[in-house]
Automatic annotation (TrEMBL):
Domain Xylulose 5-phosphate/Fructose 6-phosphate phosphoketolase C-terminal: 603-805
Protein name stated in the entry: Probable phosphoketolase
Domain of life: Bacteria
Organism, as annotated: Streptomyces tunisiensis
Keyword Translocase: no
InterPro entries reported for this sequence: Phosphoketolase (IPR023962), THDP-binding (IPR029061), Transketo_C/PFOR_II (IPR009014), Xul5P/Fru6P_PKetolase (IPR005593), Xul5P/Fru6P_PKetolase_C (IPR018969), Xul5P/Fru6P_PKetolase_CS (IPR019790), Xul5P/Fru6P_PKetolase_N (IPR018970), Xul5P/Fru6P_PKetolase_ThDP_BS (IPR019789)
Region Disordered, annotated ranges: 1-23
UniProt EC number: 4.1.2.-
Cofactor: thiamine diphosphate
Enzyme class name: lyase
Amino acid sequence: MSVDTHQASDPPPASGRGTPHLAALGDDELRTLDAHWRAANYLAVGQIYLMANPLLTEELRPDHVKPRLLGHWGTSPGLNLVYTHLNRVIRARDLDALCVWGPGHGGPAVLAGSWLEGSYTETYPDITRDAAGMGRLFKQFSFPGGVPSHVAPETPGSIHEGGELGYSLSHAYGAALDHPDLVVACVVGDGEAETGPLATSWHSNKFLDPVHDGAVLPILHLNGYKIANPAVLARIPDDELDALLRGYGHDPLHVIGDDPAAVHQSMARAMDAALDRIAAIQRAAREDGATERPRWPMIVLRTPKGWTGPAEVDGLPVENTWRSHQVPLPGVRDNPDHLRQLEAWLRSYRPQELFDEDGRPHADVLACVPAGARRLGSTPYANGGLMLRELPIPPLERHAVPVDKPGATMHEPTRVLGDLLRDVMRDTADRRDFRLVGPDETASNRLQAVYEASGKAWQAGTYEVDEDLDRHGRVMEILSEHTCQGWLEGYLLTGRHGLFSCYEAFVHIVDSMVNQHIKWLRVTRRLPWRAPIASLNYLLTSHVWRQDHNGFSHQDPGFVDHILNKSQEAVRVYLPPDANTLLSVADHCLRSRDYVNVIVAGKQPCFDWLSMEDARAHCARGAGIWDWAGTETGDREPDVVLACAGDVPTQEVVAAAQLLRRHLPELAVRVVNVVDIARLLPRAEHPHGMSDFEYDGLFTADKPVIFAYHGYPWLIHRLAYRRTGHPHLHVRGYKEIGTTTTPFDMVVRNDLDRYRLVMDVIDRVPGLAVRAAAVRQRMEDVRLRHHDWIREHGTDLPEVADWTWDG
C-alpha cells in the first residue's frame, strides 16, 4: 500500500533538500530496529485486546479478550516507530532526551516502549518484564483499577496529559527552556495540528535561545485521519505544507512510506540529519557567537493510520482509513471471524522471534535501548521535582511598604511585587530556573522592574525603537495565553519555577488547559515516585473593577469560580487587599509545591492597610477581624458583620464602616477581611476550610453579614451554604453589569459601593429600618448625585475620589 502519490518502495531523501549523504542502516541495525518496532506493535495490540494468553501459547479464545475494548490503535504504530528511532539516536549519541507525545491516546505505544526498556518495571515492580508482567500490562490497560488509555501521569517519562489535544508543542518548548543539554522530541498529531493552541505554538522557535536553551525536534505525524474525517495537513499539497512549515521557521525533513524497511532507513537518515543540524546551530551560537535566528529542523512523518493492522474488516477498508482510529476489530468476543483476524494480526509480528518462552524480550529487541537515565521512561527531566531547587526569595522586609497606620498611604501592589520579582530574577541569573510569562502585559501589569534583571526573550528581528528585547531573556511575552500556559507548564514539569501574569478577564482562555494541569497534579499526588513540582502561579490583575476604561469586554472575574470547582487538594485562591499582603501571598505561592495558586491583585494605587508584620499574620490566618476598622467594644457582640474579599471591595467596606461610625455611632460593626477564599469552605471539603466553630466565631451564627466580594456573588453563597448563619448572609459582587465608565461607577452599577453597603446594613439589622431611615435616604441621595455628576464631569464625586480613611 502506498501513501498518497508517494511510492513506499522509493521514499524521497530524508530532507528532500540536498542533505549531505548520510550512511543508511546496516543489515544488523535494521533488523534490530525492526524487531523493537514489531515488539512494541505487538504489545500495543495486546494492551487494547487481551486480558489473558499474552504470548499466544494457545489458540486465542473469546475469554482471553477483554469484555470492553477501549484504546487507540491508529496512531500507535507511528508512535512506536518514533520511540524506536529515538532509542537509536539517544544510545548512539549519548543524548539527554525527552519526548512529548501529542497524540496522547496512543498510550499503548508509550507504555510498550517503557515496558521494553525496563523503566516501567522499575516504576511498577509488579509489571515484570516477562510473561506474567506482560499479562498484567495487557489487562490493566483501560481496565477498572488499571491505567488510562492515553499518555498520563502514571506513564513513566511523560510530562504531557494526552486527554486533550493542542498543547504538546508549547509543553515541549517549555521543557527545553534553560535546559541547554536537552533535546525534546515532540510528536504532533495531524488532528492536533488543527487546534488553535498548536497552530500558535509553532512560533515558539522565535523565543528559543540556542545558547542557554535546549532544542525541540517537532515530528509532525501525518497518518491522514482523525476520528472520522481527513486531517487537513495530510490533504494539502506537499509544496503548500512545506511553505507553511518553512513560514513557521522550520526546515522540514520528510519520511514517507508504508514499507517498514524503507521507512526505517528514511527515519534514521532524517533523525541523524536533524540532530546534526541542531548540534551545528548550537555550536555556532555557543562557540562562534552566531546571532542570526536559526531555521530549526523538524520531521514530517507520513505513514498509514493503523499501519500493520487489519487491511479490511467485514469487507470495508480499515488500514490507512479513519476506521483504524480506535479498535479496528470491535466484535472479537462475539464474531469468530474477528477473533481469527485478531489472532492472525498478533501473530503477524512473529512474537516467537521477539520474546523467549518466559516472555522476556530477546537481545535483538533491546539492542537499540539506551541505558539508565538515558531511557525515555527514566529521564529525570520527566520527573522534574527530582531536579527542583528552592527558589531564592529575598526577605519581604526589603520590599515592604511602611504602614504607620491603616489607610494613610497608597501604593500600586503589583509594582511593589515587581521589585521582588526583579530580585528573584537577578538571583537566579546563573542557575536560570525562574521565568515570568504573560501575553504582552508585563509592563501594563506594573511588573516592568523585572527588566532590570532580564529582558524579554526574543530571537526574531529587532528595530532601534524596541525596548527590553534580549536574545537571552527570561521574560516570555507572546499574545497567546495558550502558549504562555503551555510554556510555563512544560517549564514547571521539568523542574523549574515561574509566574503567569495575565489580565483577569482573559485568563479564561486557558480554562481547559488549567483543568488538565490540575488533573495531572491530583494524580501525581497519589504516585509516590513522582516528586512534587513547583506550583503553577497565576497573578490576575487589570481586574474587573479597574477595567472601567476598556469596558464590558474586559470585565470578568469568573476564573476564580472555575478554579474552585476543581480538585480542592490542588487549588488555592488568594485576594490580597494591599501591597504588603500581596508580597506575603506571593512569597507563599512561589515557595509552594503541587498547587495551582490564583492571586487576584490590582495594579492601580491602593490604600496600604497592613504593616508587613500584620500582613504576614493576616495571610497566615487567611481571614480575620480588622478591629481598627470596626466599632466593636468590650464583650458586646457585633450588630452586623461587614466582610470583604478583594482590594476594591475592601476599600468600599472600610469606607462603609467609616460612614456607619459617623452616622450610626451606637451600632457595633465588625469588619472581616478574607484573603484565602477557601477559608469559607467547611474543613471537610478543603484543607484550608474553617470548622463551624471557627466560622461562627468569626462571622457569628445569627447576625447579618454583608459580604462585599470581588467576583460573582453567588460563589460566596455556594462556599458558605452549609453554615449556620447562611440565612443571614447577603453578598454583593459583580453582577455582569459593566460598561466604559468611571472606577466608582463600576461598583455603583453592581451595588457594591459603600453607600449601598450602608443601606444593606440598615435594611438587615433589626430595628434600623425605622430608626435610621434618614441615614438611608442620605445614602440613596449620594448615589443619585453620583449618577448625574459623572455624566457632567466625567470623573467620580470629589468625596469618593479624594476619600481617605480617618479612623
